[in-house]
């Protein structure tokens, strides 16, 4: 390595001067690194929307046949896109059913909700809401369980408030997983992951503020109770908009018995002995006269026979369901695992195809028009109205599809390819939070009259929680912390893409399970462990802010984190470990694929080539010097590769 630099010192300076003239606007590696690394300087903001250029033939240059063909292709792509969205929504519905079957009757969501001793702890209730929503992959399902248990008196409204907050957090993991499908391109992944996690940060920040406020003052409970008492609300029927279309396919694959699920949630012991797979779709109740054995001497016609004739209601089965698993003898767990694998396969395939199809459709003038409509603000002084219109649009679209996960998952690829900006995706996500609560409100209004008040109150708690979060984190531009936090995380994941998986595992699994475990140990353990961690986190955040904005306020030793080990304040050492691990795995795979015969053949060719080079170098001394420099260059490149690893 040193010999090579000594040999190149005389010619290096001249080459560097030439490269400086030719590579203006580029960054050149130090001569000490022995090679020139040309990296284009990125003077533009990475969050600026890219120009979506149309590489095809312009419309004006097409003849009549070409124009007709392009229109037909566009219509066909649009139909395929609608079909993929339909399959995506259906796969989410089947995924929810699969999780309920895999969870089993003894580990159903109702069992978790019935632990009143645990739910008396607000943090435990919050975590249970997150975990149950992750389990069933639907905030509508988990919130409907909460509403039914509140209306039946198993849970009080005060206990159910933290659970409703948790369902809001759990539903935001779906679009975060959708962003992972765009990890191939670094810039696209930066925008997509930030567009997905802006929803996460809004929910987490809202909980951090409103949960302590609710524990201290009962803000959500008191306001919603006042609303319920102030208005005379009559019961009605919940809308069934999107399910009318999707049930055609999903009910042909699997149907679950809602009465069994409701019985488990309500603590009915008989429901545990029944399968959650629905067998009979049409039944009838018949009233018959039946002899019933009763105690009491007055009912005895004989000394050993005491009975009375009563009208008994008997359910008779009329028609079986037509789904695939109606006649199967498999247990619920096996059916759930089969549906889980198939639904995940269809879900991931649809997501990848949707992203590819959107990339091919949103080009040229079409993309420019859509991007201009979605991201243009109203003229001054009404520019602030645009964001609120986006909130209304997000709420309306979510109300139509009856799922915030579907809507936010649909806009995540658009953010990734640069059609929607992060600043516009944020109010759309806030609107989706409101839209999903309106369905729960209308569903609660379908409750019986004597249970309507409590059911509607907990549904209004969900609505007021999201409205309060919007008031906290949107009207004033300075308070839109979720956007800045999402962009920071997007920059990190663009540089270290493996960190995206770490974020999902930590925020949605490790952290909730840790808090839940500490809650089971009691308040003393939770406070003793949680308070020092929270205080340390606050101190770290404050120091980071002062280091960037007011470093003079800090002691000299705290103006940077250099006094800590490198692994404690930088992801570079961890990145090297991950790269080395993945490289080792790839090398193992390649070694397994290679055969011994091919390796021996390559070694023989290498020996023959080396022998010929030595003969040529013996006849030509100049070539020998060039060969020596070439060998030293290879050694140097190997050293650089090892250093990078």
UniProtKB/TrEMBL annotation:
Record-annotated membrane-spanning stretches: 78-102, 123-147, 201-221, 333-358, 378-400, 406-423, 455-476, 496-515, 521-546
GO cellular component terms, semicolon-separated: apical plasma membrane; brush border; vesicle
Record carries keyword Cell membrane: yes
Keywords: Cell membrane, Ion transport, Membrane, Sodium, Sodium transport, Transmembrane, Transmembrane helix, Transport
One term of GO molecular function: sodium:phosphate symporter activity
Principal cellular location given in the protein's record: membrane
UniProt key word Membrane: yes
GO annotation, biological process: intracellular phosphate ion homeostasis; sodium-dependent phosphate transport
Superkingdom as given in the UniProt entry: Eukaryota
Bilayer topology annotation: Multi-pass membrane protein
InterPro entries membership: Na/Pi_transpt
Stored NCBIfam families: 2a58
Family affiliation: Belongs to the SLC34A transporter family.
Entry protein name: Solute carrier family 34 member 2a
């Amino acid at each position: 390595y040193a010999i090579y630099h000594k040999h190149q010192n005389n010619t290096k300076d001249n080459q560097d001067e030439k490269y400086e003239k030719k590579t203006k606007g580029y960054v050149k590696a130090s001569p000490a690194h022995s090679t020139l690394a040309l990296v284009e300087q990125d003077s533009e903001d990475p969050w600026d929307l890219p120009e979506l250029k149309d590489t095809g033939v312009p419309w004006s240059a097409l003849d009549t046949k070409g124009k007709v063909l392009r229109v037909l292709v566009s219509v066909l792509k649009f139909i395929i896109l609608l079909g993929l969205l339909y399959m995506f929504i259906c796969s989410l519905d089947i995924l929810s059913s699969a999780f309920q079957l895999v969870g089993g009757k003894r580990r159903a969501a109702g069992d978790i909700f019935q632990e009143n001793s645990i739910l008396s702890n607000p943090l435990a209730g919050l975590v249970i809401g997150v975990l149950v929503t992750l389990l069933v992959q639907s905030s509508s399902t988990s919130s409907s369980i909460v509403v039914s248990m509140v209306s039946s008196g198993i849970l009080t409204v005060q206990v159910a408030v933290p659970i409703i907050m948790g369902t809001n957090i759990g539903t935001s993991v779906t679009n975060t997983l959708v962003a992972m499908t765009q990890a191939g391109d670094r810039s696209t992944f930066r925008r997509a992951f930030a567009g997905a996690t802006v929803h996460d940060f809004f929910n987490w920040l809202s909980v951090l503020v409103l949960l302590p406020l609710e524990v201290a003052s009962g803000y959500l409970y008191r306001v919603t109770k006042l609303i319920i008492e102030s208005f005379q609300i009559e019961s009605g029927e919940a809308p069934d908009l999107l399910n009318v279309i999707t049930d055609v396919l999903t009910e042909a694959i699997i149907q679950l018995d809602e009465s069994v699920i409701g019985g488990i949630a309500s603590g009915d012991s008989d429901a545990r002995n029944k399968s959650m797979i629905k067998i009979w779709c049409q039944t009838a109740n018949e009233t018959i006269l039946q002899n019933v054995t009763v105690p009491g001497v007055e009912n005895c016609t004989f000394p050993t026979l005491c009975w009375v004739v009563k009208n008994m209601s008997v359910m008779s089965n009329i028609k079986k369901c037509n789904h695939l698993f109606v006649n199967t003898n498999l247990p619920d767990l096996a059916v759930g695992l089969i549906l889980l694998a198939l639904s995940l396969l269809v879900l991931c395939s649809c997501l990848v195809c949707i992203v590819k199809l959107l990339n091919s459709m949103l080009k040229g003038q079409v993309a420019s028009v859509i991007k201009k409509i979605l991201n243009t603000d109203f003229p001054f002084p009404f520019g602030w109205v645009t964001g609120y219109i986006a909130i209304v649009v997000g709420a309306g679209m979510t109300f139509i599809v009856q799922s915030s996960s579907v809507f936010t998952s649909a806009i995540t690829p658009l953010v990734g390819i640069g059609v929607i900006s992060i600043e516009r995706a944020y109010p759309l996500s806030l609107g989706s939070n409101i839209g999903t609560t309106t369905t729960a409100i209308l569903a609660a209004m379908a409750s019986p009259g004597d249970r309507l008040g409590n059911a509607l109150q907990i549904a209004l708690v969900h609505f007021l929680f999201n409205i309060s979060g919007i008031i906290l984190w949107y009207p004033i531009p300075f308070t839109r912390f979720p956007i800045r936090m999402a962009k920071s995380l997007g920059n990190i994941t663009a540089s270290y893409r493996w960190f995206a998986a770490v974020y999902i595992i930590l925020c949605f699994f490790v952290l909730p399970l840790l808090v839940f475990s500490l809650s089971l140990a009691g308040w003393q353990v939770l406070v003793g462990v949680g308070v020092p961690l929270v205080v340390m986190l606050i101190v770290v955040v404050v120091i980071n802010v002062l280091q960037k904005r007011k470093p003079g306020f800090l002691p000299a030793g705290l103006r940077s984190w250099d006094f800590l080990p490198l692994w404690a304040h930088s992801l570079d050492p961890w990145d090297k470990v991950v790269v080395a691990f993945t490289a080792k795995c790839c090398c193992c795979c390649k070694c397994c694929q290679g055969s011994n015969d091919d390796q021996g053949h390559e070694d023989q060719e290498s020996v023959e080539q080396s022998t010929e080079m030595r003969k040529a170098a013996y006849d030509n001394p100049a070539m020998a010097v060039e060969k020596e420099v070439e060998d030293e260059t290879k050694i140097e490149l190997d050293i650089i590769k090892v250093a990078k690893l």
